[in-house]
Amino acid sequence: MASLAGLLQQQGHRITGSDKAAYPPMSDLLRTLGIPVTEPFAEQNLEPAPDLIVIGNALSRGNPEVERALDAHIPFTSMAALLREEFLRGRDSLVVAGTHGKTTTTSMLAWIFQVAARQNPALEPSFLIGGVAENFGSSFQLRSTRTFILEGDEYDTAFFDKGPKFLHYFPDALILTHVEFDHADIYADLDAVKTAFKRLVNLVPRSGVIVAYDGNANVTECVERAFCAVERYGFTEDSQWQLRNLRMQDGETHWEVWHNGAMWTEFAMRLAGEHNALNATAAAALAFHRGVPVDAIRTALAEFQSVKRRLEVRARIAGITIIDDFAHHPTAIRETLRALRGVYPQARLWAVLEPRSNTLRRKVLAADLVESLRNADEVLLAGVYQQQRIPEDERLHPEDVVHSLNAAGTHAALYSDAQAIVDALAPRLAAGDVVALLSNGGFDGIYEKLPARLRELHPGEEAA
Predict the structure, then answer these.
(1) Fewer CB atoms inside 10 Å of the end CB: C or N, the chain?
(2) Are residues 260 and 337 in the same domain?
(3) pLDDT tens for residues 223-275?
(4) Which has the closest alpha carbon to 4: 154, 114, 113, 157?
């Protein structure tokens, strides 16, 4: 929503917003853009009445501004529908979809096209990403060229449109990273998730292409009836885009890519983790298919920084490294912790988790969550965010997760809130430790509270 607000402002519209509670990085972005956000939601925020209201999918009937819009017949639409009408018509829509890796892969793809535009300005992209891409310092860009790169979200569109947002985007080309059960609040089971992705695949024209991960049977099922070319990427021998010789070297991730069985190129980038090498390979494959030279792709990946809140180093104090990661699913948590193991192999790794996403707040993937967290040496759990809003028979009980972790040999403890975690954790940390703060929300300010407490304990020892 913040990215769309920025795009609309670039078009010349006057934009205002409302939220229950805005938090970084998007609150910082909106402040920089001069777009005012009123907190909390209230009917008077719609006075005078705007020409159009874009209603986010977090809002439902009963919200005071939704009710005011309905009562006063103020025109309203969804983010996805407005994006299609205002920005995608007449452009080439390149969509990145999947349960995991969308934001990073979309950012990589956009940066590849941006670097290619140094030699060919016609390749400069417009884009919309669900996070702040550090190379751009933004989550959006609007240009007059044809290419529009965007993140395709499988979550529902609005209270009046319960279909996935990505069905509005009609991709000319598609990357499909993973398909797993997620968003337990709107999808009944894995089959329902797969149905949504199959519908997306069915929108790609015959002249298009789908770049799909080869290591997930659900992805294979979703693309098997595509009407366009499908190119697979991953580690298997029969993939069109095969990763080989993946390794960490001199603080960078290096790997070879073999295309149709022949050596194509070798990449190096700063981001760690097998999952990020896969994301980069998918972006490279689609960019090459769209006419971007391999030299530009190599340069772009070597220059690629990251996305805010994806393995983001928030502070280094007295030899203690604080990492922020937008964790929302057991698989994402597993890959984050594995990546940190690769970067900091000698470190004592702490996982500090707030179960906040609509999937993590439910017990449906509790066993997977336990297995993911076992990749850490120490685990600290906060209470489930707004647990009372989850039906009692569906709720995750974090005390059960803690018990299972301890029984499996991974030390874990449960705390009431972020401040209790900071009070318990900060005195126990030592030089060489790495702390992964895992949440897809504000986590009650722990990203600021923990470094502040460490500065009190270790004055003058913060790294540049």
Answers:
(1) C
(2) no
(3) 999 999 999 999 999 999 999 999 988 888 999 999 999 999 999 998 888 88
(4) 157
Query: Is residue 80 assigned to a domain?
Result: no
Q: Quickly count: other Cβ atoms within 10 Å of residue 27's Cβ.
A: 16
Last residue of a domain, one of 18, 49, 74: 74
The answer as to whether 17 is a domain residue is yes
Q: Judge whether residue 203 has pLDDT over 60.
A: yes
Residue 81 lies in a domain: no
Which residues, in sequence order, are CB contacts of 348 under 8 Å at separation 6+?
Answer: 377, 378, 430, 432, 433, 434
Edge-to-edge strands, sheet with 312-317: 312-317, 320-325, 434-438, 349-353, 378-382, 411-415
Q: Are 418 and 332 in contact (CB under 8 A)?
A: no
Q: What are phi and psi of 337, to 5 degrees?
A: -65, -35
pLDDT band at 463 (very low <50, low <70, confident <90, very high): low
Q: Are 379 and 410 in contact (CB under 8 A)?
A: yes
Least confident of 7-16, 280-289, 349-358, 384-393: 384-393
Please check whether residue 159 is in contact with residue 181, taking contact to mean a CB–CB distance below 8 angstroms: no
Q: What is the DSSP string of 206-242?
A: TT-EEEEESS-HHHHHHHTT-SSEEEEEESSTT-SEE
Q: How far is CA 402 from CA 179, 230, 415, in A?
A: 28, 43, 11
Note down the domain range covering 412: 312-457
Bridge partners for 256 per DSSP: 244, 266
Which amino acid is it at 400? Answer: D
Question: Which residue's entry shows tokens 């009445």?
Answer: 49
State how far the Cα of 255 lies from the Cα of 35, in Å rounded to an integer.
42
Which letter, b or e, does each residue of 432-459 get, where b requires 16 or more Cβ atoms within 10 Å of its Cβ? ebbbbbbbbebbbebbebbbebbbeebe
Q: How far is CA 303 from CA 110, 136, 269, in A?
A: 13, 12, 7
Which of these three, 282, 303, 324, is where a domain ends? 303
Rounded CA-CA distance 12/33 in Å is: 13
Contact 227, 201 (CB under 8 A): no
* 29: CATH: 3.40.50.720
Whether the predicted pLDDT of 366 surpasses 80: yes
Q: What are phi and psi of 424, to 5 degrees?
A: -80, -35
191 contact partners, CB below 8 Å, separation of at least 6: none
> What confidence score (pLDDT) does residue 27 get?
85
Is the preceding peptide bond at 25 cis, omega within 30 degrees of 0? yes
The residue whose two tokens read 């020409």 is 51
| 93 in Cβ contact with 169 (< 8 Å) | yes
